[in-house]
Structure formats: C-alpha cells, structure tokens
C-alpha cells in the first residue's frame, strides 16, 4: 500500500495532511502524484469525490517557488462552487502562515480586492473561465509565467459551453507548461482539446466505485408531469427527510418548484446559476445549519456540493445520463449511513430510465404512493 512519502510528497506537507486526518492516498492520488511530480502532462479520468483535487494540488505545491512574485500555477474550474472548494482545499494545505500566495477569481467578487492581492504577489490562481478572461482583457493578470495548468471537470466545461473561452485562455499560456486535465467522462470534444494542447500526456483512469450506489436505497415513482408536484409533497410527508436535495432540470423549474414548496409551508430554498455568489453562499450556509430542510438545485449548482447529513435525494426531473444520476445520488448515503434516492419518472422519461438502469447494472424498484 503506497503512502504519501513513497509518492514523492515532502515531509512538511505530509504533516499538514496528517493533521487533517488524511493518511492514505486514494487511487487517483496514488496514480497521478508521481507522474505529476515528474512534470509529465496528465489526463485523469475520475469522478468528483475520488480525491482528485489533492492529486493535482500536492504536486503543484511541491514546485511553487515563493521567492518569485509571479503566477506559477493556474487552475480552471467550471463553476464558482468548485473554484471555492478547490481554494478552500488549497488554503487548508498551505495554512495561515504560508508564503504561497493564492487567489480565487470568479464572478460576483470585488475586483479591487483581487487587484490588490495581485500586486502583493500571487503564485496560484484558481478561476472560472469568464472572470479570468475579464482580467486578461484588462491586462490585470499575466499568465506568461505559468508553468503548471490544470483544467478541472473538462466535461462540465463542455456541457456549459465554456470550451471556446478555455481555448482562449490556453493560448495566453506559455507552450512549455505542464498541463493536467481531469474529467469524469471523455467526450470527443474533450479528447480533441487534449490532443491539441497537451504534450504526450500520460493517462490515468480511476473507476468511480459503486460505494455510493450500494449505500443508497433507490426507487422510482411513476407519475405524469401534472401530478408530479403533488406526488413530491406526498413523498416528503411520508418519508420526512432530515435534509434533502431536490434536483430540477432547469433554473426556471427549480424556482417554480421552490415557490410551490414554500407556499405549502416546507422549509426550502433554491440553488442555481442565477443567484449572486453571496446569495448562493447564504443558501448553502442555511442548509448546512439546517435552517432549511430542502435544497431545490440544478446539476451545475450542485457540482461539488458536500453537506453532512443529507438523508434523501429526489430526482424531481430525471437526469439524462448515468454519470449525472450517480453524481446526484452520491450526495446522500455518505459516511456509512444509508441514503434514499427517489426518481420521478413520467412516460416520456422511460428512455432515460432504461439508460440509467443499464449503466448501474440493476433494475430500480418501482414504488407506489
């Protein structure tokens, strides 16, 4: 069994990891860290929740030279939530007294604060594509010194239409950089991006384990679109979840459902891309503090969502592929507790249900309400 020392991580960094209770590397860390420390390009195929963030942060921290006041590493992520999560992991690894300057760059932030930080000297930038392009156009961020570049959740970038922005950013980077691309799935456009911009990348593939599936009791409730809202409320009354995430396909549907739940006296709130960053953080905090019981969310807003104590996930709208289904229901059944995932299926959704059942190699039990 490998440990962090045998992977090439410095003693000082291992102490920081141990203090956080991180003793044993996960499979993606075990495979990726030695390759990255040797400065090879890497394509890592791994789900969220496999520990891939540490797999690229540790090798980056091994190589940052704090004597130089310049940006040496750039990490791009598709959503603000994910950028914040990576930044928070990074801050845990570097600690308060660290000389490593880090900056998170995403929409809805105070630009002046970012500029002041850049003046003081930043070594690692974690950014969403839109806001980073803003800085490049204003010439307030210089990427000519970047030696390490991470493209995280590349398939999500594609789904959200960010690939043109990503290409513009890559063109502003030096050619002799190290590139690390992580993605849960490998659509053709992502493969093409890798072929175009990477230098003889090594590939690492870690299967998302079935732990989440085995720890989650899954069921399907057949419905029509017209009955769906009433059926959801009947299920909430019957199951009485402690904390639950309810997934909707679009922002508009999330807003409409949340309004209906609130007007029927349920403690709910919504999480989607139209909210300001401050509002999102406030909603998440209220959910963590259990001031609200039901979080009505879209897939993109819930990327990287990790809240202790989520007992139920409701697929109000069925996900359209097996990856999203596994990702959604993985929000519950954590830390050994059994979670419950309920998917509402109208007759027009039957093809997606077949796809999901094929992907997870099991038939999901139908339940009557």
From TrEMBL:
Residues 2-30 form the DEAD-box RNA helicase Q domain. SMART domains: DEXDc (SM00487), HELICc (SM00490). GO terms for biological process: response to cold. GO terms for cellular component: cytosol; ribosome. It is an enzyme of class 3 (hydrolase). Its EC number is 3.6.4.13. PROSITE patterns: HELICASE_ATP_BIND_1 (PS51192), HELICASE_CTER (PS51194), Q_MOTIF (PS51195). Keywords: ATP-binding, Helicase, Hydrolase, Nucleotide-binding. InterPro entries: DEAD/DEAH_box_helicase_dom, DEAD/DEAH_RhlB, DEAD_box_RNA_helicases, Helicase_ATP-bd, Helicase_C-like, P-loop_NTPase, RNA_helicase_DEAD_Q_motif. Pfam families: DEAD, Helicase_C. Residues 33-204 form the Helicase ATP-binding domain. A motif (Q motif) lies at residues 2-30. Residues 235-369 form the Helicase C-terminal domain. One of its GO terms (molecular function) is hydrolase activity. This is RNA helicase. It comes from Aquibacillus koreensis. The lineage of its organism: Bacteria, Bacillati, Bacillota, Bacilli, Bacillales.
């Amino acid at each position: 069994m490998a440990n962090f020392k045998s992977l090439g991580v410095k003693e000082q960094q291992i102490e920081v990891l141990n203090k956080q209770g991180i003793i044993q590397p996960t499979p993606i860390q075990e495979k990726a860290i030695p390759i990255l420390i040797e400065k090879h390009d890497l394509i890592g195929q791994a789900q969220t929740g496999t520990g891939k963030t540490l797999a690229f942060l540790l090798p980056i921290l091994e190589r940052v030279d704090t004597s130089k006041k310049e940006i040496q590493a750039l990490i791009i992520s598709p959503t603000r939530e994910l950028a914040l999560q990576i930044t928070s992991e990074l801050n845990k690894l570097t600690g308060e007294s660290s000389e490593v300057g880090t900056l998170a760059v995403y929409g809805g932030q105070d630009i002046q604060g970012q500029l002041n930080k850049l003046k003081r000297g930043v070594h690692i930038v974690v950014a969403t594509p839109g806001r980073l392009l803003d800085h490049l156009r204003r010439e307030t961020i210089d990427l000519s010194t970047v030696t390490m570049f991470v493209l995280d959740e590349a398939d999500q970038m594609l789904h959200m239409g960010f690939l043109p922005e990503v290409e513009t950013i890559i063109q502003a980077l030096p050619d002799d950089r190290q590139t690390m691309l992580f993605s849960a799935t490998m659509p053709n456009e992502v493969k093409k991006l890798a072929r175009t911009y990477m230098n003889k990348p090594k590939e690492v593939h870690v299967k998302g384990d079935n732990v989440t599936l085995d720890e989650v009791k899954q069921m399907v409730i057949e419905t029509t679109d017209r009955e769906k809202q009433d059926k959801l409320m009947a299920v909430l009354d019957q199951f009485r979840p402690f904390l639950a995430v309810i997934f909707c396909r679009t922002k508009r549907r999330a807003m409409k459902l949340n309004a209906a739940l609130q007007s029927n006296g349920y403690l709910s709130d919504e999480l989607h891309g139209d909210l300001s960053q401050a509002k999102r953080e406030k909603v998440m905090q209220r959910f963590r503090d259990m001031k609200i019981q039901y979080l009505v969310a879209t897939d993109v807003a819930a990327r990287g969502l990790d809240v202790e104590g989520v007992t139920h996930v409701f697929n109000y709208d069925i996900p359209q592929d097996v990856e999203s289904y596994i990702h959604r229901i993985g929000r519950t059944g954590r830390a050994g507790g059994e979670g419950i995932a309920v998917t509402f299926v109208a007759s027009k959704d039957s093809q997606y249900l077949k796809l999901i059942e094929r992907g997870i190699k099991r038939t999901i039990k139908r339940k009557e309400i």
